[in-house]
Design a protein that fits this description.
The longest helix is centred in the C-terminal third of the chain and has 19 residues. This protein has 6 helices and 14 strands. Helix 2 crosses helix 6. It has one domain: CoaB-like (Rossmann fold), CATH 3.40.50. An 8-stranded mixed β-sheet has the order 5-4-1-6-9-10-12-13, sandwiched between helices. The protein has about 250 residues and is an alpha/beta fold. Bound molecules: cytidine-5'-triphosphate.
């Protein structure tokens, strides 16, 4: 229609706002750092028409990638299949399965900061069928053997040679949020976990808001309910503070 699409110039006032944001003193606290983000679900094929997946819109991970890019970081976003647009300012690598996601994450190393926001499917079909699996008419459910997928966050958290300085994961829980998040912090070798309650009544899954508990080895910080964009901005602030304190900030 001529109003939107590839090649259409952004509105001049948007360009001015973006330029002002970049030029504001202290506006690029992550400049000089490589931030690696995962986002979205993974799809694990069963046969050519079926797959196993977790529910995930990619909104939170994409917002984090965008916020890190606006803060001056070089951002690599490894995204599973989502319907939202690639964030501006990040290099986005599109993958489908957990194994492809792990491969893309490892290929993007070294990174200074890793933020693993993807809802990776924990299991995949032990064998992907080349042909569509058919019902046999008896009503019997065919067995579907599953094997566990690699844990991308734990792989980075325990990486022997290229562990990012700051490894951040999420914990999607429906109960005992803090206890489960603290267990994930330890078991995956992460530095921080952003725990969120994803029970259906919270509307977090697919929605625009999130309520986070930031769990670190030094304690738990409860953040009020805010938009996923605000969560991303606050996380970037926390990262910038941490870089400042460790003296490695730009
Ligand atoms: N994660 C990952 N690779 C996996 C599974 C999870 O990188 N194969 C990461 C997620 O991106 C997230 C964190 O681990 O940062 C926790 O994910 P979550 O789904 O909450 O937990 P699980 O590890 O899957 O554990 P469980 O299903 O038992 O709660």
């Amino acid at each position: 229609g001529g109003e939107a699409g590839l090649g259409r110039m952004a509105e001049p006032l948007e360009i001015v706002a973006a330029a002002e944001a970049i030029l504001k003193p202290g506006a690029r606290p992550l400049a000089g750092h490589h931030v690696l983000v995962t986002s979205g679900p993974t799809h694990e094929p069963i046969d050519p028409v079926r797959y196993i997946a977790n529910r995930s819109s990619g909104k939170q991970g994409h917002a984090i990638a965008a916020a890190a890019a606006s803060a001056g970081a070089r951002v690599t976003l490894v995204s599973g299949p989502v319907t939202i647009a690639d964030p501006a300012g990040a290099t986005t690598v599109h993958v489908e399965t957990a194994r492809q996601m792990l491969e893309a994450v490892e290929a993007a190393l070294p990174a200074d900061i890793a933020i693993m926001a993807a809802a990776v499917a924990d299991w995949r079909a032990a064998e992907e069928s080349d042909a569509k699996l058919k019902k046999d008419g008896t009503g019997t459910v065919a067995p579907l053997p599953l094997v566990q997928n690699p844990d991308i966050l734990a792989t980075l958290g325990r990486h022997h040679t290229l562990r990012p300085d700051l490894v951040i994961g999420f914990a999607a829980e429906t109960n005992d949020l803090k206890a489960h998040a603290e267990a994930k912090l330890r078991s995956k070798g992460a530095d921080w976990i952003l725990a969120n309650d994803v029970s259906p009544e919270t509307g977090v899954m697919g929605g625009d808001d999130n309520t986070i508990h930031l769990v670190t080895t030094s304690g738990v910080e409860a953040w009020p309910k805010m938009t996923k964009t605000e969560v991303a901005a606050r996380l970037v602030e926390r990262i910038a503070d941490r870089l400042g304190k460790s003296g490695s900030g730009a």
